[in-house]
Each structure stands twice: as C-alpha cells, then as structure tokens.
Amino acid sequence: MISIPSLETDRLILRAPHADDLPRLTAFYATERSHMVGGPRDELETWDALAKRLGHWAIHGFGLWHLTERASGAFAGWTGMIFAPGWHEPELGWTVMEEAEGKGLAYEAVLSARAYAARHQGLNGVMSYIAHANDRSRALATRLGAAYEDEGELLGKRCQIWRHPRVEEQA
Amino acid sequence: MKISTDFPKLETKRLVLVSPLTYGFDIEAAYLDPDKHSFLDANPDGDSLWWSIAMIIGHWRLRGFGHFAVMEKESGAHVGLVGPWFPKGWPEPELAWHLLNGFEGQGYATEAAQAVLDWLFNENGWDGAISLIEDNNDASIALAKRLGASPEGEFSHRLGGTYRIWRHDRSLFPAPQSEVRS
Prior knowledge:
The structure holds 2 protein chains of 2 kinds.
Chain A: E1 7-8, E2 12-15, H1 22-29, H2 43-60, E3 64-69, E4 75-82, E5 91-96, H3 105-120, E6 127-130, H4 135-143, E7 147-154, E8 157-163
Antiparallel strand pairs in A: 1-2, 2-3, 3-4, 4-5, 6-8, 7-8
Helix pairs in contact in A: 1-2
Chain B: E1 9-11, E2 15-18, H1 27-31, H2 46-63, E3 68-72, E4 78-85, E5 94-99, H3 108-123, E6 130-133, H4 138-146, E7 150-156, E8 162-167
C-alpha cells in the first residue's frame, strides 16, 4: 500500500488521511468556511476528495497530512504539499478546523510539514496560494517567515502567491 | 464486499494484473505520461485524467480493492486498468475497464475482465457485479456481452450521464472442481 510517513510535533500528529476522518471532513465541507478550500461539498464529493488525497500521495510521494491533536485525539485539519492539475508549482497548504484555531496549532503543523518537505520530499523554498480575503492565513504565512511574492490564479480564482524561506536541509 | 489479500496478483495466459499500489509501481509513468499511450475514449482533458487516476488509487486505500494494473506478461507493457469499482454513492460494486490505446482488438479486455470476475466471485465471495455502460459505447457493450452480462435498468450519475446497468452472470464463473475450498 502507499507508504505515507507520520510526523509528530509537541501537540500534533501529522498522518495519512483516513476513512475515519470522513464524518469530520463531511461536516467541514458543508460549512461556509470550506468555500476557500474547494467547498462546499456533499458526502459523496467528500469521499471522492479523500480518495483523491490518497491518490495524490501515491502519484507524487507527497501530499496532505491529516492532523490529530495528541491530547484529545481530535481531528484538527490538514497540511502538506499539493501539486494537482491547475497548480503552477507544488504548494504548501493548510486548513485548520474551527475548534483547533487560536492555539498555534496551525503554525506548529505547517512548520513541521515545511521542514519535512524540504528535507525528505525535495521541496524547498516553496510557495502558498492565499485568498485575498484570508487574513488568518496571511498572518500565519507572515509568522512562518513567508513573504508576499506576486498575484496569482488558482482554478480560475485570483489569489496571492506567498514564498516561504528556504529550510536548512541538514536536520 | 471484501478482498482477501493486501497485494493481489492475478495471471492469465497473456497478462498479469497487480494493484497499482504495489511497491515500486510507477503510476505516473504508466498512465500520466503525455508522451506515452493514452486511454481509449479518454476525455482529452488531461486534468480530469489525473483526477481519475488519483481516485482509482485512493479507492484502493478506502475500499481495500480497486482497479488492477494490467500488463502484458511477455513485454511488461501496460495495457490498462480493469477492476472492481465502488465509490461512495455507487449503486453496487462495478467491474470497470479502461484500455490504453494500441491494445484494442486483441481480446485483452475480455481476458483481464474474466480473470477479475472469476477472482471476485470465487476468491472473494462476491454475490454479484455490474458494469455501467452508456448506450452509445459499442465497444464496452460488446465486451459486456462477451462476458455474458445482461442489460437491466438504468443508473443516472449525479454529475450527469445515464448508464445502462449490465449484470454479470455469476454462474458463468464456476469454482474450479479440482480445488478444495476451505
């Protein structure tokens, strides 16, 4: 089967997307919040999306990790490298569930994913697409040391391109 | 509907069928290289091909089964993808097939499909299987008939498109008499 690595941070596990995540994913994709990341989606579309995330890992050897909060076991969102049709280059992306916000979990997760991508997936000095309206993501990108680079477009929607600093490749 | 092994491998007279998740299998080289063979009747939109392949792979992980990568035994050449397909919302598990250009007219789809049906019915205890085929898809209809399937009702896909349900005949794939089944 596909071998998707697991990473641990202080408070999170970054691990393979799993069928057990479907109820939480389906609930998320029914919300307004999901509109910036491919939503809204119904139950069947969410299943398809989960299958595609797993397929992405098999095709590329990288992809989105799903996040589990270690203390509670709760599903906290996802982060990782995305390079699907329409993407101009591999993107470091993230989405955090509402209940997991405001605790610095996104920062912890994305930092870990970014370092792993640089050291083990051959992806360094990567970019993130950020919607103009997404102040939270912009704040996080800034905190991560990324800087605004250019205007861009993803799947017909105009957005910003932010560039991350290169990660030291020797761990 | 279960599958009995993590890494199923089937063999016919001329073909070998493996899971595309088998360690070392290069999915991109097999199906996503624009300089190599493309799929028969493929949507010319390369983007939707990528998503279809991603879904076929992910389906294996979510369902524990999926399309087999079919290869010529002698040459190792990729022939296509044939296997059980049951995404969420599908009426019933389906036997689906996607042949690569250049391999038509050799009976490969029939040979692979028969091997998969035999395996599903006999190794995995499946009760039934269907194939969903549009009425204008002459090649697939001919294949369904060769496999002994019979047309019944219709299935309307939520994204549009209406398919006729072709039901496969389990009695055409009897368990081998010489084997002792536990």
